[in-house]
Amino acid sequence: MKEYTELPVTQTNFSIPYFADAGVDYVYKAHITVFGKEFGGIFITKKINDTTHRVVFTTEFGNTLFDFEICGDQLKVNSIVEELNRGIIKKTLQHDFALLLKKDFTIEGQYENDTIAVYKSRDKKRFNFIFVSKKENKVLKMNHSSRLKEKITVEYLSENNTLATKINITHKNFPLRIELDFIND
Known about the structure:
The chain is mostly beta strands. The protein contains one helix and 14 strands, in the order E-E-E-E-E-E-E-H-E-E-E-E-E-E-E.
């Protein structure tokens, strides 16, 4: 946070608006690379209730690669293909999607520069740093970090403040990358 000025905390809560509407099926063209294997298809997520999202990843031909329900930190596996059915991969996907779908954050630090406001939120033993454009008030990215190192980056591109049209999830110390491009009806 060297290029940002620390500010007193004036906002104790922050909400990321993406994936918050229970009436919308969020459908993305997806590309997942894990341990050198590539998976392409359709990623669909839907908010089932205030605490649960359903996440499904299928091939373009309709074969299900995985079907999860995520409730906070809890994962219910409805189905998963053998190539992805490894403990470390499931746990990492669970954590990534829980982070992606999390809406509300308790803020314990604030920073800014000329164009970006940054909100720091504790996540167990780690931190989430949420970067927001000051001009457009849009979430640009979220870094999931230890005290010293960035672990995961979630980048958002949006045309408005309610729908992310492009999302990239990149790991700094694990061979997993997820790219999501929104599919317009």
